[in-house]
Amino acid sequence: MELSLQKKLKRQQETAGRIQDAGTFPKVILIDTVSYCNLRCSMCVHREMTRKKGVMPWPLFTKIIDEISETDKHARVWMVFFGEALLLKRRKPSIFDMIVYAKQKGLTDVVLNSNANLLDEKAARGLIEAGLDAIYIGLDAFNSETYGKIRVGGNYEKTVNNVRGLIRLKESLNAATPEIFVQFVEMDINSAEKEEFVKFWTDEGATVKIRPMVSWAGRVEAPNLILDNKDRWPCYWAMQTMSITDTGKVVTCAVDLDAKFIAGDITRQTLSEVWNGTLRELRQLHKLSRFDELPPNCRDCRDWQSARADYYSTAE
Fold first, then answer.
1. How far apart are CA 177 and CA 132, in angstroms?
2. Of 6, 15, 66, 8, residue with least CA distance to 239
3. CA–CA dist 254, 16 (Å, integer)
4. Are residues 275 and 23 in contact, defined by beta-carbon separation less than 8 angstroms?
5. pLDDT tens digits for the chain (316 residues)?
6. Residues 131, 97 contacting (CB under 8 angstroms)
7. Strand duo 310-312 + 207-212: pairing
8. pTM for this structure?
9. Do 103 and 130 contact (CB within 8 A), yes or no?
10. Sheet bearing 76-78, strands edge to edge
């Protein structure tokens, strides 16, 4: 089951040539519905976030969804960028209302990333009934001790039961969605638990996603990032993804937590205008492998090599 890092990198280098410019509209859009989080994870820099935290106003959210609906209903829309969307489960409008709005507008790939500490039965039912297409749950450990060191502030046993509850509820309702992914960010601290993690969660009926660390543009030590620009390929996130903060600012980089590098503002522009402006210029440099001409924050970043994952399911 285990692939060496060298084999993984070789495989990604072979497929890197297929990373294409999304064209005139992004294939993936991350919406910062809420920029608060309830955990302080060791491999994440959210705890050091300096920009003001907030919740995306409903008119801005609907403006974004409306344009996606009119331009490409099949774009993948993440209902979170840097935060825990289930913090909005009791707010009005709630995260469920947001998902319902997106689905009623015809979007076909509405997904959520969550740490699942707040995924009680009511929230699980809310996600299913809202029509969420997929949920990615970050666990990153197979025992409570490791989990406590990584997912600081979380409760391992409760979270495992929450995820199992979602799986069982989906089965009992005979619901087709959401597809349930359980994620494991592979690090030195948890790598010995990976095979047990994969076996347990695939047996439970989830799909397991194993992904490497990101350094958050160099702010966290990520020893897996061993390549430099001479081996570089176009960044998947730059070529395919638009990330929008809760205030409508569009960042140039998917790991720019503090929104230091702004490409546009959706309160004054359309997504298409921003995507075909500064972001297009960055994509062109990536396509032409002119990496040394990129802005320093992009030129010096190594996180492009982390845009990969391995997936395991019971079918395999």
1. 7
2. 15
3. 18
4. no
5. 345 555 555 555 555 556 889 999 999 999 999 999 999 998 888 888 889 999 999 999 999 999 999 999 999 999 999 899 999 999 999 999 999 999 999 999 999 999 999 999 999 999 999 999 999 999 999 999 999 999 999 999 999 999 999 999 999 999 999 999 999 999 999 999 999 999 999 999 999 999 999 888 778 888 888 888 888 999 999 999 999 999 999 999 888 889 999 999 999 999 999 999 999 999 999 999 999 999 999 999 999 988 889 999 975 5
6. no
7. antiparallel
8. 0.92
9. yes
10. 262-265, 249-251, 241-244, 28-31, 76-78, 110-114, 134-138, 179-186, 207-212, 310-312
Take residue 282 and report the two structure tokens written for it: 């960055």
Site of tokens 């997936």: 311
In the block, residue with structure tokens 């592979």: 186
Number of residues that make up the chain: 316
Per-residue b or e along 266-297, where b marks 16 or more CB atoms closer than 10 Å to that residue's CB? beeeebeebbeebbeebbebbeeeebeebeeb
